[in-house]
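Summary of Year 1 activities. Much of the first year was spent building the evaluation harness for sequence design. The harness presents a backbone, in tokenized form, and records the residue chosen at every position. We chose the following record to illustrate the format because it has been used consistently in internal testing since the harness was completed.
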């Protein structure tokens, strides 16, 4: 990875997001020439701002729906590798704003791939979608890449559409241009520095910070939880492999093994146990309550079969869900215990420490 990515020109869409910031940190560790295109961070605080990432890379602030601006960035940067992560990523938000969700997740993908089609320097593209692209049949078995793409809610369905758009561009244009393209369908990603609303781990951290009970809407829902470094390293692995061998361009699931697919209630209980051990407060133990708010439909059971990724690249997930939560809490305690005095260099140092630990696992 170091040898391959050193001095490579990599363009990351969605770089101001939680996952995007972690990905750019990894690429910096590899010595890549990183540029990003995204809106301003969607949350306050935001990991991108807390780490000062925008000062350490080439950062373009723009809307993925703005094709002309995006073309300008591609013309200027001439990327060799494109990792497309810009998205509207929240299920509940997609119910409130379905038109924007489709415009961002579908036409945003069209715009990125159109820029790729027009840019001779690009050799490898990874479009990051989601485990929710599949028609959910509430199966206990994991979904495989050939299962039907038919997400239920506007977010999931827009990502199913993004998969189809990618497949069309690949067949109609990019294969003939010798540009390798893959889609990666990742499970539920957690890690330090996520401040999104309506996500269980950020909700846990916010409740712990306020000394309140954690409210869990769907404690019996099974999800493939994994540390953010798991899929990010997989995306880079795929980007590198298909750059060298375009035949490897395909669709790949990225998720944990079955023993780390747990219910949201189990995840929350584990979070509370680790938090109470690492940050004990006299007379105050972090806990949670089951309180449905009558929100919109969400899948109850969702797992991925990652055999294809494992067999194609000799890949396997490294961190258990318990170790993952330990790493999340390690980061969040550094941030919270330092308060407003926490330095960007301290948070970046923690991220780099975790990246080194992951690579050495």
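For this record, the design step produced the sequence shown next.
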């Amino acid at each position: 990875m170091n040898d391959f990515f050193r001095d490579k020109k990599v363009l990351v869409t969605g770089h101001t997001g939680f996952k995007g910031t972690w990905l750019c940190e990894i690429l910096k560790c590899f010595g890549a020439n990183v540029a990003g295109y995204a809106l301003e961070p969607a949350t306050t605080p935001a990991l991108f701002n807390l780490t000062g990432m925008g000062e350490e890379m080439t950062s373009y602030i723009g809307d993925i729906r703005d094709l002309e601006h995006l073309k300008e960035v591609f013309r200027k940067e001439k990327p060799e590798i494109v990792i497309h992560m810009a998205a509207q990523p929240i299920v509940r938000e997609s119910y409130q704003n379905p038109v924007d969700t489709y415009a961002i997740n579908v036409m945003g993908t069209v715009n990125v791939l159109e820029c790729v089609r027009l840019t001779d320097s690009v050799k490898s593209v990874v479009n990051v979608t989601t485990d929710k692209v599949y028609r959910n049949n509430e199966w206990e078995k994991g979904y495989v890449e050939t299962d039907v793409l038919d997400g239920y809610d506007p977010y999931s369905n827009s990502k199913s559409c993004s998969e189809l758009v990618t497949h069309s561009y690949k067949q109609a244009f990019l294969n003939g241009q010798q540009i390798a393209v893959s889609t990666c369908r990742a499970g539920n990603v957690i890690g330090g520095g996520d401040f999104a609303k309506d996500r269980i781990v950020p909700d846990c951290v916010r409740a712990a910070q306020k000394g309140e009970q954690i409210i869990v809407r769907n404690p019996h829902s099974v999800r493939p939880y994994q540390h953010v470094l798991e899929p990010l390293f997989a995306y880079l692995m795929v980007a590198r492999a298909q750059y060298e061998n375009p035949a490897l361009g395909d669709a790949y699931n990225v998720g944990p093994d079955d023993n780390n697919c747990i219910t949201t209630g189990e995840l929350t209980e584990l979070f509370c146990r680790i938090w109470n051990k690492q940050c004990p407060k006299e007379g105050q133990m972090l806990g949670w309550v089951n309180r449905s708010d009558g929100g919109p439909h969400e899948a109850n059971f969702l797992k991925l079969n990652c055999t294809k990724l494992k067999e194609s690249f000799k890949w396997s997930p490294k961190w258990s869900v318990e170790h993952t939560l330990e790493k999340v809490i390690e980061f969040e305690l550094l941030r919270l215990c330092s308060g407003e005095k926490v330095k960007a260099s301290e948070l970046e140092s923690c991220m780099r420490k975790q990246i080194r630990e992951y690579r050495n696992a």
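The longest helix spans residues 154-174. Quantitative recovery figures across the full test set are reported in Table 2.
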